[in-house]
Amino acid sequence: MRAIQLKGIGDLVQTEVPKPNIVAGQVLLRVTAAGICQTDVHIRRSTKRMIPDGTILGHEIAGEIVDIADDVQRFSIGDQVVVHPVWSCGICRMCVAGQENACRNTGGGSIHHQRPEFP
Fold first, then answer.
1. Which residue among the candidates 15, 32, 42, 84 is catalytic per the annotation?
2. Which top-rank group of organisms is this from (predicted)?
């Protein structure tokens, strides 16, 4: 499958990657639309390593479910879905209120140390 992959600092390539194997609780999408967001631009322009080399960029996507784990009950093959990624702490006032998109700690707040560091 085609992907935009970060090979190293400032080095993005369009490449072929193996089809991922799904595990329990997962579905596989055939991406039909994807957006470039500020996070993608920031990662591309950064002069320091922000994510591991080899990461496939793109998290604002829509697609069709083409494979599904046996334990997934909510979705079916052929469903059209949108991926809604939210990076949140799960414990601040906004997260507890169900407003993870307004998390108080995702910009380097008090739990910044819980995020992974990459060499």
1. 42
2. Bacteria
In the annotation, is 112 catalytic? Answer: no
Whether 68 and 77 have beta carbons less than 8 Å apart is answered as yes
Torsional sign, CA 111, 116, 118, 119 = positive
- pLDDT tens, position by position, 39-88: 778 888 888 888 888 888 877 889 999 999 999 999 999 999 998 777 78
pLDDT value for 84: 74
H or E segment to which residue 93 belongs: helix 93-96
Catalytic residue among 39, 55, 112, 113: 39
> What domains lie within the chain, and their CATH numbers?
2-85 (3.90.180.10), 86-119 (no CATH)
Listed range (34-43, 66-75, 90-99) with the worst mean pLDDT: 34-43
Q: Is 47 a catalytic residue?
A: no
Residue type, 76: S
Structure tokens belonging to residue 96: 């507890």
Q: Identify the helix (H) or strand (E) that includes residue 12.
A: strand 11-16
